[in-house]
From TrEMBL:
This is 6,7-dimethyl-8-ribityllumazine synthase. GO terms for molecular function: 6,7-dimethyl-8-ribityllumazine synthase activity. It holds the Pfam family DMRL_synthase. (2S)-2-hydroxy-3-oxobutyl phosphate binds at residues 81-82, 123. Pathway: Cofactor biosynthesis; riboflavin biosynthesis; riboflavin from 2-hydroxy-3-oxobutyl phosphate and 5-amino-6-(D-ribitylamino)uracil: step 1/2. GO terms for cellular component: cytosol; riboflavin synthase complex. Catalyzes the formation of 6,7-dimethyl-8-ribityllumazine by condensation of 5-amino-6-(D-ribitylamino)uracil with 3,4-dihydroxy-2-butanone 4-phosphate. This is the penultimate step in the biosynthesis of riboflavin. 5-amino-6-(D-ribitylamino)uracil binds at residues 45-47, 76-78, 109.
Length: 154
């Protein structure tokens, strides 16, 4: 990429240790690409789409802030004993996808949907699946694609 992308990294803090590892992978990938980034935390995965929407809509009121070129959403949903797992997984993914399609956003979805903490750690760990890094790479790749279609604001 020729231009330095500015990325919002937002992570759900409900499983803080896993969120930290996902963020470690994402930030390392963004640093490797030379992207700037600001990280924000939200309580859970259902709040991820709202946080991204807040950043988008804030430009309507405060244009002095640098616009984000892309977004990386990180979090972990671990199946429990209730059906809440299904709702959180479906609605957080739907919310992120709705934002990407409605606003033509580059969003890397790094929300893990797993059965156990052990599965989460395999997927989150930088030395293993590194899903945080993969989400950041997806975001950067989508920014690059937007540039090819001249959808990039610069």
């Amino acid at each position: 990429m020729t231009d330095t992308p500015h990325i919002m990294v937002v992570d759900a803090r409900v499983h803080e240790d896993i969120a930290e590892e996902l963020a470690r992978g994402a930030v390392a990938e963004l640093d490797r690409a030379g992207a700037t980034h600001i990280r924000y935390g939200v309580p859970g995965c259902l709040e991820l789409p709202a946080a991204i929407l807040y950043a988008i809509r804030s430009m309507d009121f405060f244009t002095a802030r640098k616009r984000f070129d892309g977004y990386v959403a990180l979090g972990c949903v671990i199946r429990g004993e209730t059906t809440r797992y299904d709702t959180i997984c479906a609605e957080s993914a739907r919310g992120l996808q709705d934002l990407a399609l409605r606003y033509a956003l580059a969003i890397g979805n790094g929300v893990l949907n797993v059965e156990s903490r052990e599965q989460a750690w395999v997927r989150a760990t930088v030395g293993s699946k590194n899903m945080g890094g993969q989400a950041a790479r997806a975001c950067l790749d989508m920014i690059d694609l937007k540039r090819k279609f001249r959808l990039y604001p610069r």
